[in-house]
Amino acid sequence: MKFTKINLDEDLIWEEDKFNEDIPLEEILYWDDELNSEDDLWEEYGGMPFNTGDIVMSSEDSQVPTHRMYIVDDIIDSEEGPEYTCFVMSSNISKANLNNKKYPGNILIKNYGSTISKGSTPPKDIIIKIDYPITIHHDEISDTNARKGVVNDLFKKFISAVYLKYQNGLDTSKDYWDDGVPVIRK
User: Containing domain of residue 34, as a range?
Assistant: First the structure.
């Protein structure tokens, strides 16, 4: 089975019946350049390439871990160019908090597509590693097609709430995103 894209009235629709869970999210989104024209980036951000809530891809030779997909959480405007504090995204759902108690900071996201307000919306389950925020220098971001999506406001609030719980030493092992519905346990 393969992930197939169909263009109907210029909207992307993903055929779930042809979806293969073994394909990493970065491969699914790799060629998507809908959000990456220079004009779009310049006009939207006034020259600052990315913003909080953007999903970005690092370059293959970056100094960051093996994962290449990130959600921008904060922007640091350093003298050498912008740096971004990000959360790692992964398709390895066997290490999700609900599937493996050893990873309470790997928050399960059921249906990545339900988190997106702008960009492609494949219905793939992923994890967000809230216990491992990293800093990426602008030189480590992919030179082409770097921006893969923008998350919606509800998902931003969900990630902030779960990250705050984690920072305060509270249990996040049962928190998850259920296809557009945030589930945060007390």
Answer: 5-183
